[in-house]
């Protein structure tokens, strides 16, 4: 059996929460965190401080580590590239190392944490290996978690899905920029969109999005997935544009997206951490957008905008 890859990320302790959120975007299973900031306080709740191992007490409280695991079928270099890009964009100082690890049970054991998941009022996300579920009248999106970012578990994906269900009622043309697994564009089609275009710069994401589209019954011309940088390969105009990416890319995209939007179109953005809100809002204003909705979940923000 081929080895899995462990990726170990070292960050400043104050960035642990933000870094672990980003790491879970790279792979939503197989993550654990070393955080020693409150070691004594937490231990005293259950035992005497004297019984803590001396090596543990000697741990540096100013740094933390996030560990994630990449299956042999996936390219760990792509995950590392993704992490570096996101951490840099969010101003998180970091170092990354990787090593091979073997655990014959791990490949299947992580699946026990994924169950059919209701999102909003209209959607049920079903991992492909689960056949026994009650859709309860919801549209069912079948997906293989972990192949590319976007399985419904992360705050930003849930925010976008809940928002999309309010703006995709039937007949819309949808553009999903930075589509990852394709979960947002496929969900839009399940909600009744006439067509959807997904775009991602990463070849693995494009492959995965196409496969997820096929799994749910959507192929070209109804569902098209392009490999490109933002809108460099996109043509036409859309009724809904969604971008679940980092703040810096959203700021850049905001200057380009208007020409691809119909007059009454909505621009839905997420992947924005709360400290970047003012910068993103300023970019909307500077490029002729007004914010009509703001949603927050776990420190992550989602905006709905329209052209003024």
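Q: What amino acid sequence fits the structure above?
A:
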């Amino acid at each position: 059996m081929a080895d899995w890859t462990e990726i170990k990320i070292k960050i400043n302790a104050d960035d642990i929460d933000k870094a672990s959120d980003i790491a879970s975007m790279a792979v939503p299973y197989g993550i654990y965190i070393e955080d020693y900031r409150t070691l004594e306080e937490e231990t005293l709740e259950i035992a005497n401080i004297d019984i803590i191992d001396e090596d543990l007490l000697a741990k540096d409280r100013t740094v933390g580590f996030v560990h994630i695991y990449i299956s042999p079928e996936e390219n760990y270099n792509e995950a590392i590239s993704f992490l570096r890009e996101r951490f840099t964009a969010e101003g998180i100082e970091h170092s990354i190392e990787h090593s091979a690890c073997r655990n014959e049970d791990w490949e299947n054991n992580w699946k026990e944490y994924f169950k059919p998941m209701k999102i909003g009022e209209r959607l049920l996300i079903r991992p492909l290996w689960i056949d026994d579920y009650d859709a309860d009248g919801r549209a069912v999106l079948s997906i293989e978690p972990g192949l590319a970012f976007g399985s419904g578990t992360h705050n930003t994906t849930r925010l976008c899905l809940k928002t999309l269900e309010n703006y995709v009622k039937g007949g819309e043309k949808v553009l999903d920029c930075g589509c990852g697994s394709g979960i947002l564009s496929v969900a839009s089609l399940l909600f009744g969109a006439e067509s959807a275009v997904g775009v991602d710069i990463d070849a693995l994401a494009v492959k995965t999005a196409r496969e997820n589209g096929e799994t749910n019954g959507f192929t070209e011309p109804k569902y098209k997935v392009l490999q490109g940088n933002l809108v460099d390969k996109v043509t036409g105009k859309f009724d809904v544009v969604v971008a679940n990416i980092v703040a810096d890319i959203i700021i850049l995209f905001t200057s380009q997206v208007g020409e691809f939007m119909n007059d009454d179109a909505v621009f839905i953005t997420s992947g924005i951490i709360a400290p970047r809100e003012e910068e993103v809002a300023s970019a909307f204003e500077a490029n002729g957008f007004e914010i009509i909705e703001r949603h927050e979940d776990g420190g992550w923000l989602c905006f709905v905008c329209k052209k003024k």
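Q: And what stands out in the fold?
A: Residues 89 and 248 are 6 Å apart (CA to CA).
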